[in-house]
Amino acid sequence: MKNWKQPKTKTGDAVTGEYYFRREKINDYFWSYMNKGVDVLFVAPRRVGKTSIMKDLVANAPDNFFCIYEDVEGALSKNLFYKRIFYMLIQKMSRIKKAKTLFSKWSKKYNIKSVGLNKIEIEKEFENYYDEVIDLLHEIAKENIKIILFIDEFVEVILNLKNLDEYKEARSLLHELREIRHNDKLNNIIFVFAGSIGLHYIVKEIGRPKLINDIEPFYIPPLIENEAFNLINQLTKDATIQYNDDLQSYLIDKIKYLLPYFLQLMLQEIDKIAFIKEITDINETIIDIAFDNVIKNTSDFDDWTERLKSYSGKKYPFVNLILTCIAHKEKLSIQEIYNLAADDKNIADNFKDLIDELVKDGYLTEDNNIYRFISPFIKEYWLYKNPILPC
Ligand SMILES: Nc1ncnc2c1ncn2[C@@H]1O[C@H](COP(=O)(O)OP(=O)(O)O)[C@@H](O)[C@H]1O
Ligand SMILES: [Mg+2]
Predict the structure, then answer these.
(1) What's the number of domains the chain is made of?
(2) Confidence class of residue 3 from pLDDT cuts 50, 70 and 90?
(3) What pTM does this model have?
(4) Distance 355 CA to ligand 2 centre (A)
(5) Are 92 and 185 found together in one domain?
(6) Are 147 and 60 in a shared domain?
């Protein structure tokens, strides 16, 4: 069909600009933390929108804060982690007027070859980038510049160190960062960490839960209905396929647990179906077909399995058993869950912790000791992946 206009959906990376749907209340709440000078941790499963939110916060920060964003996922050692922060700090500081003198000093000190919008070449190499980062931070503090360091995929760095059996290195990194946070001379620096896996879970396993107890978790809630309507309208504004109020309500009701990503997947799939069928008016049946198609595209949801595997480790078979039973039977009571755990003492002793974690993490919801999937998408995905009833 000619002149077909797709909705402005994107389902790969973080979204920005007109592809991004801003939720003012999230931004407002975030800045209220920053004004208090509190360090925060964005924890939510992959594709809930952490990176998109952080990028929006960085791009629209109030003038009194200078924001620096860095994705540190590939940093496989403590030193590499600090090296990334070191480069990022210098490169970003080169762009603010207030740090002009500072930057020319660093230019000489570190032999900076070139600096651009997104890259920097520094000739000098260091054995210990932690010391250099500390120096930089102290110098920035003396200039009275308030900075917020957004460190994306931080939890993954700690998890990688743990998986490499580098417990000492992981503890030491957490310990040093805590010292920076508690250093009175560095009060102008605020950390915003992010990750897709519960940091407290990993930190508990490496035996140092106290190292992060000063960081406030920042919860990203799913959209409320009104926001979902607005998101649909924003993304389909100029599109060929339009949704009247009834269709919007039907779509929202179908998705129930309203992550922007789930809406994006649906709008994209509905558009594709309509295009192939050469129709410009959609209906509820098309929404149903799109839902079934989206579930079969399991790679969009595989993260929900992978992250559970990565932190529940040996307990994954039990966690998977519970989720599979709930997917098949719609719901399980806490007693039924306990009965499934009872044979294995290791599991039975802390089965409630595991279940609480599944609730906190956006898999299950609990009402009166009855557990169900919170998202029909995740439930159907689980069913699709685990078609045999194990209980
Ligand atoms: N505010 C938003 N507006 C529009 N789409 C969003 C928004 N937040 C998340 N998404 C959708 O979710 C996907 C993943 O977002 P991203 O920020 O990468 O999540 P995360 O960092 O939590 O993995 C995006 O590609 C987009 O489809
Ligand atoms: Mg991300």
Answers:
(1) 3
(2) very high
(3) 0.93
(4) 25
(5) yes
(6) yes
